[in-house]
Amino acid sequence: MRADGNLVVSCGSAMRSGIFIADGVRHGPVAALAPLDVIRAAGGKAELDARYFRGFLGSGVPAEVTPFDSVRRLPPGQTATWRPGRGWAVTRWLRDDVGRIPARLTGQSAVGAYLQAFDKTVSDMVLAAGGSIATHLSGGLDSSFMVAGLARAVPADTLIHAYVHVPVPAAPCPPLGIWDPDDSSFADVLAESLGRRVIVTRVANHASVLPLDAAAAASAKSGWPVWGTATQNWRDQIAEAAGRDGATHLFDATMGNIAFSHTHDYATSWLLGQRRPGAAIRAVYQQVAGGAAVRATVRHELRRTISAISQDWGAAKAGEHSLRQRRQWAADQRALFLDGLSMSIRGNMAAVMPAGVQGLFMADPFTSRDVVRAAAAVRPDEWHRGPGRRAFARTLGVGRVPDDVRLRTRRGYQSADVWWHMRNHRERYLAEAAMLAESPVVGELVDAAWIRSLVAGLPWGEATNEDRLAVVLANRILALAAYARTMSVALLKP
C-alpha cells in the first residue's frame, strides 16, 4: 500500500497461476491467491461468468477472465494499481518487455545466453526451495533438461526426487503413432547419466480414481475447474509424495513447450518478412535431419520459399501474392509465440490451478523473466539449427542430457490408461451426461443430446478405446458441468 492510498499488486513471471483481484470499483482493493478468498473478502457475492465457460469449451479463455463475474485474474508479468474511486489500472510489463527485444541471437551467442539465464534461474529456485528437491520428470526434452539443470545446481550430496507417471500394469496401452504410453525408461537413462543422484519414483493410478472424481476433489480445494482431468490424479499423488519427502517446491517444466522446445514453424516466413531471402533459404536447409520423408518436406518448403521470393520480386500488383501473405502469417505467429512466452495467451493458462492448492509452490524455471527474455532474443530460424525438430532444445542439451533422451524423436503421452479406469463406469457417465442440461451456464453452451450420444457411443466394457478425443471431451465437459453445479450452490451460501 503506497502512501497515496494506491494499492499495488504485482505478479511475477514465476507465479504461473496468477493473483486474483476483485473486479470493479464497488468491491474495493481486494487481492488474494485464490478466487474464492476474493469473493469472501469482497462481500461474498458473485455469479458464474459465461465468458469463462464459453472460452473453456471453445477457442480459449482470456488470461484475465475467471469463472466468476466479480473476480479478475492478474496473470504472470502484470501489475495492477488500485486507484480510489477509479478501480484497477493494469500494466502488462512482461509482454511489453519481450515485445521490445530484438530476435537477433544466433549460434553460440544464442546457446550461451540461454544457458546462462536458465542455470541462474535454477540456482535461484533451488536456493528458495531449501532442503528436499522434488520434481516432475518424463522421458521428454523439457523435463529432462530441467532435471539435468537441477543436478548441476544442487550440492553433490543432495538427492533429487523425480516422480514419473506410468500406466497401471494391467492396462493395455499400445503406442499411437509416435506416442508411447510409458517413457519412464528414459527417466532411468537420465538418472543413470547423473550418477544416480536422481531417485526415480513411478506413480500410477492404482486406486482407479475416475477423472471426474479427481477433478471434483481438486475443484473443491481450489474453487477452480480442472482442464487436465485425466492427469489430475497422478499430479495430486506426486504433490503428496513430494510433501512427504519434505519438499516445499515442486519443480515442473510445463512452460518448456513454449520457452524451450517450441517448433517455430513460422521461422522461414519470418525471415522473408525481414527481407532476408538468403537467410530464409539457409533456414530451410537447416531443417534437414535425415530420412527421405524429412528431405521431401524440406525440398517442398524450399520450392515454396523460392517461389514466394520470385513472386515478390515480379509481382505486378502489391498485396496479391503469397509472400505478402506469408509475411503476415509469420508476424501473427511470432506475436502468438510472444503471447505464450509471456503467459498472456488465451487457453490453458487460464486453467492453471490457483497457487498452493497442492500445498507446494510449482517452480517452473521456464517461466523466469531471464529465461523468457533469452528465448525472445533467439532468432526464430536458430530454433531449427541442429538435429530434427525442436533442434535448438536438443543443441542446448549437449553434454547435459544423454543422447538417448536428447535425440529421441518419439513422444510420451500422458494418462494412457485413462480409458482402462473408465471402462466399467457407463452408468456413472450417462448419469453425469443426463445432468448436463440442468448445469448452470454449461447446459446452455453444450448440446445435451450430443453429449449423451458421445458418452453412449463409447465402447463401454472393452479393454481398449482408440478414440482418445472422445474420452478427453467427455471428461472435460462433464467435469466442467459438475463444477458449475457445485459452484452455483456454493455462491448462494452466505
Describe this structure as you would to a colleague:
- The chain starts with 6 loop residues before the first strand and ends with a helix.
- About 4% of the residues have low confidence.
- The protein has 21 helices and 13 strands.
- It folds into three domains: 85 residues, Aminohydrolase, N-terminal nucleophile (Ntn) domain (Glutamine Phosphoribosylpyrophosphate, subunit 1, domain 1); 240 residues, HUPs (Rossmann fold), CATH 3.40.50; 67 residues, no CATH class.
- It is globular.
- It has 494 residues and is α/β, with parallel strands linked by helices.
Topology (elements, then pairings):
Layout lengths: L6 E5 L7 E4 L8 E2 L2 H7 L8 H8 L13 E4 L3 E6 L3 E5 L1 H8 L6 H23 L3 E4 L4 H13 L6 E6 L13 E2 L3 H10 L4 E6 L7 H12 L9 H13 L4 E3 L4 H4 L7 H7 L3 H10 L5 H23 L7 H20 L19 E3 L5 H9 L13 H6 L6 H4 L4 E2 L5 H5 L3 H9 L7 H4 L2 H9 L11 H23 L4
Parallel strand pairs: 7-8, 7-11, 8-10, 9-13, 11-12
Antiparallel strand pairs: 1-5, 2-3, 2-4, 5-6
Essential attributes:
single chain; about 500 residues; alpha/beta; Glutamine Phosphoribosylpyrophosphate, subunit 1, domain 1; Rossmann fold; five-stranded parallel β-sheet; 21 helices; about 10% strand
- CATH architecture descriptor text of the largest domain: 3-Layer(aba) Sandwich
Q: Mind telling me the CATH class of the largest domain?
A: Alpha Beta
Structural class: alpha/beta
Number of domains: 3
What is the spatial order of strands in the main beta sheet? 10-8-7-11-12
Summarize the biggest pleated sheet.
Answer: 5 strands, parallel
Task: Measure the end-to-end span.
Answer: 29 Å
CATH-defined fold name of the largest domain: Rossmann fold
| Fraction in beta strands | 5-15%
What sort of overall outline do the alpha carbons produce when their principal axes are compared? Answer: globular
Mean pLDDT across all amino acids = 86
User: Going by CATH, what is the homologous superfamily of the largest domain?
Assistant: HUPs
Q: Give the % helix.
A: 40-55%
Low-pLDDT sequence parts: 288-295, 309-321
- Would you report the number of β strands? 13
Alpha plus pi helix count:
21
User: Compute the gyration radius: what is it?
Assistant: 24 Å
Quaternary structure state of the chains depicted: single chain
